[in-house]
From TrEMBL:
Entry protein name: FAD-binding oxidoreductase
Cofactor(s) essential for the protein: FAD
Pfam entry (one): FAD_binding_4
Location of the FAD-binding PCMH-type domain: 42-221
Alphabetized PROSITE patterns for the sequence: FAD_PCMH
Length: 469
């Protein structure tokens, strides 16, 4: 039986005595940041925020919550967009904010061992200083924590070459819902000794265990980066260009970002981002390649692009001649971060679909939103090389609380279901997308997810109500 709130405070006192007073924040000391993630859900003040410094401290917090019957939610950088880290009243937040740092960089095995609260950008810089490269990259790199990146199986800009977050992990340390510490800090690329347990926790959004330490896979540091911003007549040309990029650039291809005309017009006309090529085209692609031979890579890239131009696939193209120009090209793609200030309240979506179907999806979805919701506008862009599309929908002039989100969801996710896609390509399910999970997963799949949740968390105290709980 769960304790009443006043009884729970005795639990926190005992926990503070065990972990230190700085580790347990209660009442007015609970920071605003721990009350909600970036999902926009209504904030809720947890009974306490527990801030351990190691797996033993996380285990102690979990056991205390379990013994008291208190639900608890793990928190990292709190940059999630689906509510996976948002608490509810009467819960305890177990924050990784003090579990930061690089424990080891093993150049021989090309691995890095880090604590779960370490910001992604810190990991990227540490790898670079060691002459290596960690390819996971997100717009929230300075704020997001690696534990959260793994719990949502983050994607980002370079999935086409390096894969999702789960492809960059060799080992984990995890605290299970009963407080047991599972130490599986494997460094081996090849290890088929039984089940690969780390994949239970990567992408589970903190519902099956709390990730505390990670062994990451590193790559050689790229010595050259080439990029081009290209205009194309339509989506069929985009598919032809993608095939040319895969064939002509091979393993050098590191990003293939597509922007539809509505997105392009928004960022160049309303966001004020300067473009190196003109508008009026059917699609725009930012293609990037990374190599290890500065002298040879740029000429090879330019020669490949010239061949594509000669074959009539592209309508126009601009090639970056410096790192600053590459960053400027990416500024067009990353301008979506400014949409709040430009558009006002809006609803963002992250969906997945077979690459060949994305052109048809955008046309159907845009028409469907406009027909179902008077005045609704939408724009489309994404990591098309890996089948991940982002879209933003809004009714101008309406505050966020009055945006017809359910009607938008019905159109977007209904179209995704009809075309055999995923309602979440890289952001997770949390609570925001939970009602729509059957649109992307079968009854058998969801039932098995619930079996796993029940087996690992029979008391239902770890992040309850999220994903399938």
């Amino acid at each position: 039986m769960r304790l009443r709130v006043e009884q729970a405070h005795g639990v926190f006192g005992a926990l503070a005595a065990e972990l230190g007073t700085a580790a347990v924040l209660v009442g007015d000391a609970v920071p605003m940041r721990n009350r909600c993630d970036w999902s926009g859900l209504e904030p809720a003040t947890p009974l306490a925020v527990v801030r351990p410094v190691d797996a033993a401290g996380v285990s102690a917090a979990v056991r205390a919550c379990r013994d008291a019957g208190l639900p608890f939610v793990p928190q990292g950088g709190l940059t999630g967009l689906c509510g996976g880290a948002t608490p509810r009243a009467g819960w305890v937040a177990i924050s990784m904010e003090r579990m930061v740092g690089i424990e080891e960089i093993d150049a021989a095995s090309s691995t890095m061992t880090v604590k779960a609260g370490t910001p992604l950008e810190t990991i990227q810089r540490a790898a670079e200083e060691a002459g290596l490269y960690f390819p996971l990259d997100l717009g929230s790199r300075g704020s997001c924590a690696i534990g959260g990146n793994l719990s949502t199986n983050a994607g980002g800009n370079r999935v086409i070459r390096y894969g999702m977050a789960r492809d960059l992990v060799l080992g984990l340390e995890v605290v299970l819902p009963d407080g047991t510490v599972l130490n599986s800090l494997n460094k081996l690329l090849k290890n088929n000794a039984g089940y690969d347990l780390k994949h239970l926790f990567i992408g589970s959004e903190g519902t099956l265990g709390i990730i505390t330490r990670v062994v990451l896979r590193l790559y050689p540091k790229p010595l050259s980066t080439m990029s081009a911003l290209c205009a194309l007549p339509d989506y069929d040309a985009v598919l032809a260009f993608l095939a040319e990029a895969r064939r002509g650039l091979g393993p050098l291809l590191s990003a293939f970002e597509v922007m539809w005309p509505d997105y392009w017009e928004l960022v160049t006309e309303r966001c004020g981002v300067r473009a190196p090529i003109g508008g009026g085209h059917g699609a725009y692609v930012l293609v990037e390649a990374q190599g290890t031979d500065e002298a040879a890579d740029q000429p090879r890239f330019e020669g490949w692009l010239e061949g594509v131009l000669e074959r009539g696939i592209l309508a126009d193209a601009a090639v970056a001649q410096s790192l600053a120009q590459t960053q400027a090209f990416w500024g067009l793609r990353d301008a979506c971060a400014d949409f709040v200030g430009v558009l006002g309240p809006h609803i963002s979506y992250d969906v997945g679909l077979a690459t060949g179907k994305l052109g048809a999806f955008t046309a159907r979805c845009k028409a469907g939103l406009a027909a179902a919701i008077p005045g609704c506008e939408s724009v489309y862009y994404g990591h098309i090389g890996d089948g991940n599309l982002h879209l933003v929908a809004w009714v101008p002039g309406l505050p966020l609380a009055e945006q017809p989100k359910h009607a938008m969801d019905t159109v977007v996710y209904g179209t995704i279901r009809e075309m055999g896609g995923s309602i979440s390509a890289e952001h997770g399910i949390g609570t925001l997308k939970k009602p729509w999970l059957p649109y992307a997963r079968s009854e058998v799949e969801i039932a098995l997810m619930r079996v796993l949740k029940s087996a690992l968390d029979p008391a239902g105290l770890l992040n309850p109500g999220k994903v399938v709980g």
